[in-house]
Structures are given as C-alpha cells and as structure tokens.
Specification:
Strand content: 5-15%
Mean pLDDT: 91
Structural class: alpha+beta
Shape: elongated
Radius of gyration: 19 Å
Largest sheet: 2 strands, antiparallel
Length: 102
C-alpha cells in the first residue's frame, strides 16, 4: 500500500516514472533493498586468499585457498541488522539508514 501511495503522489497522472522521478521513490527503493537483503540474488561467491598469514576466528587460511562467501550470512547477522528476520524496508530510509553498519 505504501508503494502505491508513493507512486500516486510522485507520478500524479503519469503512466510511468521517468528518470527524474526515481530519486523521489524513496520507499520503493527501500523496499527493493530490503527484498535483496532478505533474498540476495547471489547465494555465494568465491575468493582466493592472496596472501599468507591470514587468520579468521583463529583459523589459518593459506595463500591460494579458495573461500566461499555467503552474503546471506551477513544479511541475517544481528551484529549488523536490528531484527534481521523481519522484513522492514524502513531500515533503508532516513534516519535509520545511517545506522547500518557495513
């Protein structure tokens, strides 16, 4: 409902948004960001360790080791997100968006 209200307000009587309308669609953008946080497009990615002497939580990761990184682990981490299991687009709107810890 909030997205429809925002579209009605921003677009007025236009059929489609144009480029100048995009910065005004604040709640729609926040909803898209929250959707991607909850359901990331990329489930995992891989990186090769490029130097020796890397330790992660006390575990040695040797040079040239292939590491799997799952973004969803960070997206649901309560150290980074308040109530990470809750769908809350407002976390990406001012002033709360400035509290996000990257």
């Amino acid at each position: 409902e909030r997205i429809l209200e925002e579209l009605d307000t921003v677009l007025a009587h236009k059929q489609e948004p144009d480029y100048d309308d995009l910065p005004k669609l604040i709640y729609m953008e926040a909803t898209i960001k929250e959707t991607l946080r909850i359901n990331p497009v990329v489930q995992s990615t891989y990186r090769m360790c490029v130097k020796d002497g890397v330790y992660l939580k006390g575990i040695h990761i040797p040079k040239k080791a292939l590491c799997t990184i799952g973004p969803i682990m960070n997206h649901y981490d309560p150290q980074h997100w308040e109530n990470p299991e809750t769908f809350d687009p407002d976390r990406f709107t001012a002033p709360r968006r400035f509290k996000i810890k990257p």
